Model the fold of this input.
Amino acid sequence: MRGLTIWFTMSALVATAAPAATHAPLPAPASKQRMIVLSDIEADPDDSQSFIRLFLYANQIDLEGLVATTSIHMKTSIHPASIRRIVDTYALVQPNLARHEGGFPTADRLRGLIREGQPGYGMAAVGTGKDTPGSRLIVDALERSDPRPLWISVWGGVNTLAQALHTIRETRSPDEAERLIGKLRVYTISDQDDGGAWIRKTFPRLFYVVSPGGYGAGTWTGIHTLIDGADNRTISNGWLKDNIQQGHGPLGALYPDVAYGMEGDTPAFLSLIPTGLSDPEHPDWGGWGGRYELYTPPVATTDPSGFSGVAIEPETRPIWSNAIDSYKPLVAREYGRATIPGDRSVKDFRAGVWRWRDDFQNDFAARMDWTTKDFAEANHAPVVRLAHPRRLTVKSGERFVLSAAGSTDPDGDGLSFYWSHYQEVGHWQTAIPNGIAANIHTVDFTAPAVTAPREAHFIVGVTDKGSPPLTRYERVIVTIVPATTAAQ
Done:
């Protein structure tokens, strides 16, 4: 290993082989993100697809509202009954889901979260006296004595949120309104009514994630667009049939065929699932839902002539919007080193979703298995354990070691590892290669020369050898300081 010193005990290495599963349900996450969904369900089958996936993670996110809304594609009707139909089917599989992991809410609890949003389109349906059960739900959730932020996951029009903000501005003191709005985090799937532009202009400090403009400029489209020259099997109709729709119980059978694009709304909640990869407060760090940076996007970059139907207004302040990643799909090899980057590099705003897509599709398939299989028959994600803190400080020229040797798997499966420098994230955007093979549990890097402190982000993906293979992550943030600074 080129002189690499392994500074871990043998017991840490042995820990990679976990004991056989006890078949007791795994614990739910100790900390969850709060979320309210606004959905134009029935405008397109993809909302139903996204709800089916979401309910498989209903123990991983604190759901506080499921609101039926309008959108540019469905201006005069809302369909809360369609959400109830999916919840009724969830009721049939919830007991089996609970055999695998704790915390799955009852169907009655989910039914109690369903509300009606604005019955009309856009800002014409917003104003004094136009509160709806959906807008009141948002206000009530913000006023709850919960210190966590409240995510609004917008899959259609945003005017129900606009109504909640209008009411807060009208009825609360400026200080109280600022406090409540400061708790909001918004992720919208593009702009599907004229409420988004109004909100961003009227509430300039509101945390807002969006790809404005035509859908062709949407980071979220990475969930279903093809990667040229790569294996796109996990988003194919055949894969959906075999892994979700057929032979996977009543919830899978309810999953509709793709009409326009598979699950275009799902990225609005993917990064809230606690996988060890993302920090929702830092959209620029990247995650299953994509990567976004804080800036004011010019209209010319927003696919202004593309399909959406909503007039594009110039942005008046920075928002969290498209970030460009470079990504090389990994290739599994039959002989020699098990995994290597492929020959072709993709540079695109959708690559922040593409790079994780097989992982979250496999995760979806495994959870759909949970709806029908016993614990011993299904796969469960590995647990990643670092042998050091998540934040380290090193000096220029120093060789440093990163390790996930203590990682385990609840099913006793073998584990594969892959380390990478996420070079678009942080302050050092030139690739920092590791000194040995990237696909082992313990690797070394050499810090580059810097003249001021710089952060670099390193990701380890740990994948089990179950079926389907499941991946969890850890992120190590390394602060690199000049050698002279470190010596002082």
